[in-house]
Amino acid sequence: MSCTNNVKIAIEDLSVHYPDRVQPALHGLSETIEEGEVVAITGPSGCGKSTLCHALAGFIPEMLPAKVSGEIRIDGSSVWEDDPAHVATRIGLIQQDPDSQICTLNVWQEVAFGPENLCLRPEEITARVEELLTWVGISHLADRATTTLSGGEKQRVAIASILAMQPQVMLLDEPTANLDPQGAKAIFDLLGELREREGRTLVVVEHRLGPLLSLTPRLLVMDRGRIVLRRPTRRHEDLVALGLRAYWERLPASAQRREEMSLAVEEVSFGYNASPVIDRLSLRLSPGEILGVIGPNGGGKTTLLRLIAGLEVPKDGQVIRAKDLKLGFVFQHPHQQIFERTVRREFEIEGPITEEAVACTLREARLSGLVDVPPLSLSLGEQRRLTVATALRREPDVLLLDEPFIGQDRHNVAWTIAQVLAYRERGAVTVLVSHDIPLIASLCDRLLYLGEQAIEGDPEAVFSRLMAMGREAFTPDYWEGESA
Amino acid sequence: MISRIAYRNGTRGLHRVSPAGNALVLTGFLVVVLASPGVLVKIGTLGLVLLLTTLSGEQVGTFLRNIRFVLVFALVLFIAQALSVREGTVLFSIGLPITDEGLLAGAQMALRFFVILSASFLFVLVTDPDRLAQSIVRLGIPYRYGFIFILALRFVPFFRQELRTVREAQRVRGVQISVRSLSGLRRAIRYTFVPVLVSGVMRVDSIAMSMKGRCFGLHPRRTITRKGRWGPMDWVAAALFVVLIGMTAVARRFAWL
């Protein structure tokens, strides 16, 4: 499975302009990536990181229509002159969302899919698939249906599927964004092994840079379609010096916090089919409180929000809500909560609203000037701010946030935090599900870990228990060098 | 409902038969119910379908529950036929006369419908779609078309989940959907199908990119690694096919069957 013929990538004055956008996604970008190099790319949302990955993989403009200029050469030959399927023999792209990468219905078949397209001999394909399934630790899943896998398992299958084609360069576009901390740690460990064992060229787009430092990457920082900083990075201090590690100060508890009960979960058990997800969980939520919920994929975090929102009915126990309690629920994927043709009408779903109120809310959400724009044409960050703003328009007593920070840059994260804190001061309860451990450690008054067991309490106490259980990836110390 | 009628990994009965063998068995069932004139042979065929379901490790009760909508349609067909056929001896009347020929015609049509659908669902339950697509390709059909079939199956659970999520999003935002008026219908389409369609289009685009990124379409042919081989269980399936064809011939000879 080793790969010895690495390639040099030369990007020359590359510009990419999508037809529906005013500003170009990439603007006169030039860079050279040497064979065997590890490059980490970071930067704010919408700065062009994913566009660069798609351009390198040959998907732009062939599959993602855009006006392009400049040149990308792989070992001297232009990417534009090749079909993406041909480019894929040398460059393998692993995307952010593991679900959207799976092409077949069975794990073994999924890993074999690429080599089969390369017309390799069946014996060679079988050998590659068996070796890779073992190496990435999923040999026990070989005959499983791909639809039954967890997010972490799917991402491992995606990595094995790309490795099976033995591309000389691997591009990874936020490969851990949808994974729980333990799953993310496993992927970072896998990348380290890949680097050590094969010396393969790795280009990794990441917001969380800390765990990548062991690979001694060359860091590229992007902003508004350009590379604004290039620097080898080895230590956490380098990230701090570059302002790439966000420190989230531990926030004091709200003065509005009161002992009365807004909502209680009493001895609640719930499962899908025969599999229990939540087992006799009890919780009590008081006004002015922020509860952080962490845990592995499939541990029941979203299920808990759904039970509180009344979208699921407990198998045992009950959820008790104060009379006339208003709920706001922000889903993980904003497009699933957007229904109307314009941003203004999106606000009108919640009831009549004046022009001034819409303008004021949009200004606060940094969406000014977008009042008559179709909401689904907004960027992911803008859609997220819109869904939070529309949820808050209901003035909920309980705000449920499901992974609101995925794919968000520091400014969007800071905006969301400001909304949560402002709401807390008005006596609202927030239940926040997130894999962003340092952020949740700084923001939340109380923590609930939902995994092999439920652990609830003061954040420090919960983290101590998790350390003792060997779940260090769920503690802020592990993510010491992380940026947001 | 649809998700319950999906392929399940198994090791017993028809699970051990290749897609070609299972297709042969399904063909046999279709021939019997379409070409035999009587009711008895159709009842026997239904019994055989349920026997094979059990032998394949599936519980008949669960299987029937999962296809209960087929039972309801079959019942509707039976009643409609019984009410509309006027020929024959009148047995009783419920406002409209019910004749012996009407009941027989209703039973014929309902059984035919039910056997075809239940045999088809059994086929789906025991046939690995990946291997079925490979079998289609081996018949000489270009592999791009074989994969359309796999992708269609890949999207069934996706659309079901998206639809559920969008309906829940409507609930949490307090959106009331009613289709009793034209404007309500328009709103339902915009609030339900547009978000699902947007998700679908996004997913189609990303899977198309993933397929290209895995060299799909690079060569006019592609390797099939796990070829379905014709094994001993396929000979059993072939024998069953012969039995079913024989049953059809006998049933046609003795029309009362």
**Largest sheet geometry of chain A:** 6 strands, mixed
Spatial separation of the terminal alpha carbons of chain A: 35 Å
CATH architecture of the largest domain in chain A: 3-Layer(aba) Sandwich
Helix and strand run of chain B: HHHHEEHHHHH
Q: Would you write up a description of this structure?
A:
The complex is a heterodimer of chains A (484) and B (257). In chain A, 30% of the residues lie in helices and 24% in strands. Chain A is α/β, with parallel strands linked by helices and 484 residues long. In chain A, the strands form four sheets. Chain A has a six-stranded mixed β-sheet with strand order 6-7-8-3-9-10, sandwiched between helices. Chain A has a six-stranded mixed β-sheet with strand order 15-16-17-13-18-19, with helices on both faces. In chain A, helix 3 packs across helix 4 and helix 11 packs parallel to helix 12 (410-425). The longest helix of chain A has 18 residues, at 181-198. Chain B is mainly α and 257 residues long. Chain B has helices at residues 19-35, 40-55, 60-66, 68-84, 100-126, 129-138, 143-172, 182-212, 232-253; strands at 90-93, 97-99. Chain B has a two-stranded antiparallel ribbon with strand order 1-2. At the A-B interface, helix 2, helix 3, helix 4 and strand 15 of A face helix 7 and helix 8 of B.
